[in-house]
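Homework-ish question, so no full write-ups if that breaks the rules, but can someone show me the predicted structure for this set?
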Amino acid sequence: MGEPKDKIGIKEYIAIALFMIGTKTTDDIPSMLFDSLQNAGWIAPIISGILAILPLFLLLHIAANYQDKSLIDIIYHIFGKFLGFLVLFFLWAIGFFYIVLDTATYTDIISTMYFVKTPAILIYATLMGVCAYGAKRGLEQIGSVSWSVLPYLQVSLFLSLILTIGQGNLGFLFPVFGPGEWDVLKESTMKISLYMDFLYLFMLFPFVKSTKDFKKGTWIAFFLILINLSITMVSYVMLFDYKSVMLLNYPYHETIRSISLGFLTNIETLFFPFWLIASFIKFAAYLYINIMLFGKLFKIEHFEYIMPAFATLIVFLGLLPESPTFAIFDLKAMVGNLASPLFFFLPIIMWTLAKFKGDLRK
Amino acid sequence: MNFFVSTVMILVFFYTCGFGISLWKEKNKVGSLAIFILAISIVVTPFFSVFR
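A: Not a homework solution, just the prediction itself:
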């Protein structure tokens, strides 16, 4: 495996981005947003999305000026060897802990909502086994699988949305700004880390066919994700009202349990496999990027050999919290609070330093 | 279950150490050290999570 030999196209890149970030609406992220913003939780992806435009724009500008260099090489070039290593190590550590927490959340979802009698370690090991295998296959395979299953997953999400909104109450959305405009603005700003994964996606810059494809793909993916996140969160409020939705840990799974398709009930069995496929692809992409970063940090060319070690360590670390539903929720909020300023300020600092170095001519 | 976890843990530990040794032979000492730390964490962490 090592670094990919072939490049991925715009379609594959968009699909990977959609899986990595778009699936956040189906875990405990909505719960975090509703917790602080009540019925205005669905506005947070929009406001933090508007704020994320600046770092994204700067990152794209930097990437376009350093053709054929990934974010890793650009950081080394801008910050120098020592400081660059520290920045990248911090990025890797945040990414790694986020994978641990996120996989633990997904295991908790599967074990508390679907396979209640199966030991969590077996579910976790299966999840990580599949994802590690996917990641080991390389970026091209992750990209092509993402693109081939994306239509089915979008149709399944769209169907669940139609059913949810059809059975919901529009009145539950009011008052639109929930706890107040200022609170909504303040809390949404803190949740800019929702789009943090774009920073990691920039590490794939040299492996996308052209700069134009990368730029176009980033903006298309960004707007699709923003719309996906907001509409699904609107549907949760419409179905449950804010008081109930604040108490739910995994609103998407409660939603697909609550809705019915005519005389058909328990249609979560229809949506669950699609969600599972999306989760496998998401973590395969996450693992690939994180291990590639680790390999670059420590100059390990064939980083695929550390895939089993990473997957095993993630399982052991993810099983550390005794009550994952609550402990991971708090830890994720903590990592999010660290990641938000990093995602916002790192591109600004990079752009300023590159400008001072005279590298930004285009 | 503990037997299964221990077997996986030991296998992955030796596999990772093997890769660390090959990196050391290739003169990539920093990479090798990182891999050994990774291998040690694989042996230590289950005692706080799975075997507790």
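Now go work out the reasoning yourself. Hint: The CA atoms of residues 46 and 226 of chain A lie 6 Å apart.
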